[in-house]
Design the sequence.
């Protein structure tokens, strides 16, 4: 009888020891399908496969139409489509309107979304360009205000400074006729300068030294400020940059043309 009790006691201790040594059951991993699709879209966007990116984002949108990140990334996607033919306004128009709509939806959900402000500003400004002089000037205020908010909420995004530089450059480069239109629309037309444009482009370049757009527009600014030596230097930097997309190749072609005309 004593041996039986002893045997049972030893068996219990052994079972307890095994239980302590046994690995804990793995926690069940919960996969968020929306987050997974967004991650896939980020990967395809990084690879510059914009069609696949938009397909994925549209899938995510069907699952969660109130997701701010999905909304602004779809807005960005429409810009990517429009940017395939940067100088063809008629081609770009439908993409610009759709892109602005999605950025507006994102802002309705989160008015502090820097990315939503940025893409709204970009589309809004280009819609103005596509619709003519009067609309270009009318949209310029909205473009400026949303870009400044984008900078406020995300001062690390180089694109925000580039857009603000483009705002200053475009308004400083208005023709005499456009300035007359501006004076009719506004008692005090928007104030801008090539010097301020240059400051914003330099800030953008400091954050992303590989972006060809910044190099090209820094060159443009120096040319407008009658510093041809610096303009030439920046045009050459743009020409020698690595191009991976049709849009970037178009920018290099612009830089070559600007250098030839200098």
Sequence:
């Amino acid at each position: 009888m004593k041996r039986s009790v002893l045997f049972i006691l030893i068996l219990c201790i052994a079972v307890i020891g095994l239980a302590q040594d046994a690995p804990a059951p793995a926690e069940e991993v919960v996969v968020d399908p929306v987050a997974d699709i967004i991650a896939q879209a980020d990967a395809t966007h990084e690879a510059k496969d914009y069609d696949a990116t938009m397909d994925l984002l549209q899938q995510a949108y069907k699952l969660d139409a109130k997701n701010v990140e999905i909304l602004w990334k779809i807005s960005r996607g429409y810009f990517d489509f429009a940017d395939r033919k940067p100088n063809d306004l008629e081609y770009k128009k439908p993409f610009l309107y759709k892109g602005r709509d999605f950025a507006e939806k994102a802002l309705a959900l989160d008015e502090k979304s820097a990315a939503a402000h940025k893409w709204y500003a970009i589309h809004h400004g280009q819609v103005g360009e596509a619709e003519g002089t009067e609309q270009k000037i009318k949209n310029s205020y909205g473009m400026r205000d949303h870009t400044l908010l984008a900078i406020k909420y995300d001062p690390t995004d180089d694109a925000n400074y580039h857009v603000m530089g483009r705002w200053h450059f475009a308004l400083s480069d208005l023709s005499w006729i456009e300035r007359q239109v501006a004076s009719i629309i506004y008692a005090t037309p928007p104030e801008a300068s090539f010097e301020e444009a240059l400051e914003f482009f330099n800030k953008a370049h400091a954050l992303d030294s590989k972006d060809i757009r910044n190099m090209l527009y820094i060159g443009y600014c120096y040319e407008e400020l009658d510093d041809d030596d610096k303009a030439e230097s920046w045009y050459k930097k743009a020409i020698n940059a690595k191009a991976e997309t049709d849009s970037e190749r178009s920018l290099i072609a612009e830089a070559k043309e600007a250098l030839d005309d200098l």
